[in-house]
């Protein structure tokens, strides 16, 4: 497998070469798309600032939401190995590196599935991996701005580990390790991936897949304990903006728009074309669905469908393609398969854009079907021209990478001392306006490294924000002083705050008080802070008269226990794999 792995890596590098068209490029220049893109990349900055500037692991951040338990955010990847490049490289170059690696691993997983489940020759399996790698799925999602969606590319590799004939229980452990980045950073992607692994695994090799699925799930729960415990803590105290509905939310055609494929003609168009590099908007929202276009091209799709028919071993994959296509049509097909086979499952109601999370599996199946057709053509002695069809999606999709990394970003001057900003209430403060109506001065991507905070950030899980901003920002990027700002620390009674300093997990304050008083800190109250109380939603602590040198520590017991469990699980997994080896 070494030679195909090397060739797939070279193919990934060549396909992603347009990323280098603008070496200083970090975003597209489309404000709507850039909002999600920069928002996703900004999570790496919390880890970078915490570790390199303060020597702390970021359990929380004082720079978003007036103080937010950042480890519990679905998109925070502080625990992920894919966050390591961000410690050494700029966000744009670290993202480039990760995308190349993830694309390669996805192609490698499809190659393995082609060899394992279809028993294709090495060459035909390579064509299957190439069809996946050269499709528009990953570049199209990056054009739409969803960096955290890229980790779903690990799903085919996890399924191959679950299905392969060799490896025993060790393969289940490795599958859990492979799925870990999806759990740590891709939010609802772990639900859709788990659904596909269970259905495909049981359909293809139930006796082998079932125990490995259970081992993978146990490995994932142990290694990811810190993440899911932190996430449950935040969900328990906050409000998920795209959360589960009281009833089925896709019952009408209007509700299902831009969430499911709405017709076979449109579906074929989405399979064929890539997402447009430049999009148009109506009332601030895209005119076309953001998640639908897969850029496989119709010739590749047609050959893949023939592969399902002509190679008997490929017919299970053909059925999986039909089944997951039905899920992606949802209420636009009779019976609404999505409602009964996904939405009705516990927790799956949180998926608000179904084909955003499930159309990847259509690409995997079609890539395998294409490899099957190549195998049939070779077995029958036909001219070996089918691989040339992959030139179309390659040439069509590769330029998207240049668009993703099209424009540079300009750093904002670092603040002399920590201060927080929020949207000027005179211009409106609707929560959803945070998603795509913010100037750069209001984006965490720029302000976290500049040493400032954004109170009203766009968080998928929203917690109450009691912190008071020092300045208001406006839509044109200007800022003005906030009239009710009292500093980052003050007393309810007379006192002098001589200094106050914030790091992610620590607050240091020097106070001189002529009599006993209560000190209020301009950070949201959180029960993870020791020896503090709630004062109107803010942190507070009672002080005696005289001089006080305070050092407050953030130590959420459940999350720390989760970190301990994750570390113990990692040690155990490494020991078991080493001992087995």
Describe what you observe in this structure.
- There is one protein chain.
- The chain is of the alpha+beta class and 581 residues long.
- Among the domains are: 80-404, no CATH class; 489-557, no CATH class.
- It has helices at residues 2-15, 31-54, 85-88, 91-117, 122-133, 137-144, 155-163, 169-185, 189-223, 225-237, 253-256, 264-272, 298-310, 315-329, 337-343, 354-358, 360-379, 391-397, 399-404, 444-447, 557-580, and strands at 239-240, 281-282, 285-286, 419-423, 452-454, 461-462, 471-473, 479-481, 489-491, 496-503, 506-513, 517-524, 533-535, 538-543, 546-553.
- The strands form five sheets. Strands 5-4-7-8 form a four-stranded mixed β-sheet, with no helix packed on it. A four-stranded antiparallel β-sheet has the order 9-12-14-13, with no helix packed on it.
- A hairpin with a 2-residue loop joins strand 2 (281-282) and strand 3.
- Helix 1 (2-15) packs parallel to helix 5 (122-133) and helix 7 (155-163) packs antiparallel against helix 8 (169-185).
- It is elongated and about 95 Å long.
- 52% of the residues are buried.
Amino-to-carboxy terminus distance: 19 Å
Helix/strand class? alpha+beta
Radius of gyration: 25 Å
Strand order in the sheet with the most strands: 5-4-7-8
- Helicity level, as a percent range? 40-55%
Number of strands: 15
Net shape:
elongated
